[in-house]
Amino acid sequence: MPDPSFYFALGVILLAFITLVSIMWANKRGAPWLPTRLKKVRKMLELANVQPGETVYDLGCGDGRTIVMAARRFGANAIGIEIDPMRYLWCQFLITILFLRKKVKVIHGDIFEKDISDADVVFCYLLQSTNDKLEEKLVQELSPETRVVSNTFIFRSLPTIATDKSAIYVYKIGTELENLNK
């Protein structure tokens, strides 16, 4: 019978392997997980002027902090999309223990394959290359007046309606067409 420390070491190695695969999976499709400070999350929600009852999406929701705050402090119906299975499971656990299942939903999947057309506000903290690919989807799927908030990285063709010194960029879908016609 092997020593119990063998099983412990095996468990640690297995957990490290699962974590590494999870990180590599998420990096390949969007961005590495880098949590946003709660103070900045609140500022992003304020700049987007999130209202009670609005539908808020967080594309690549990570640990769920944006969707949780959108629901708890702003009264929004929040939906997170997360490709990383470990973070998806964490979000499911979090919204369950916080009794937010009626206001918050987390979808496991690729942000490029999910329909977000019912969004009032869309949040993202992705790499610039991912934002560049995502921009066309946003313009095609979202209704005019939908607000898009990006943390740190910009959308090159969408006109900015608000910014913050901490690299928060707010855009409004529909205004890009107005600017093209001028």
Explain what you see.
The protein has 182 residues and is an alpha/beta fold. The protein has a single domain, classed as Rossmann fold (3-Layer(aba) Sandwich). 43% of the residues lie in helices and 19% in strands. The chain has 6 helices and 7 strands, in the order H-H-E-H-E-H-E-E-H-E-E-E-H. The chain has a 7-stranded mixed β-sheet, with helices on one face. Strand 1, helix 3 (65-74) and strand 2 (77-82) form a beta-alpha-beta unit. Helix 2 (38-47) packs across helix 3. The radius of gyration is 18 Å and the shape is globular. The N and C termini lie far apart (78 Å). Mean pLDDT is 89; it is low at 178-182.
Strand content: 15-25%
* Biggest β-sheet: strands ordered side by side in the sheet: 3-2-1-4-5-7-6
The share of residues in helices is 40-55%
Main pleated-sheet profile: 7 strands, mixed
The CATH topology is given as: Rossmann fold
Helix/strand layout:
Blueprint: H1 4-29, H2 38-47, E1 55-59, H3 65-74, E2 77-82, H4 85-97, E3 104-108, E4 121-124, H5 128-141, E5 147-151, E6 160-164, E7 168-172, H6 175-180
Parallel strand pairs: 1-2, 1-4, 2-3, 4-5
Antiparallel strand pairs: 5-7, 6-7
Briefly say what this structure is.
The protein has 182 residues and is of the alpha/beta class.
Structural features:
single chain; 182 residues; alpha/beta; Rossmann fold; 6 helices; 43% helix; globular
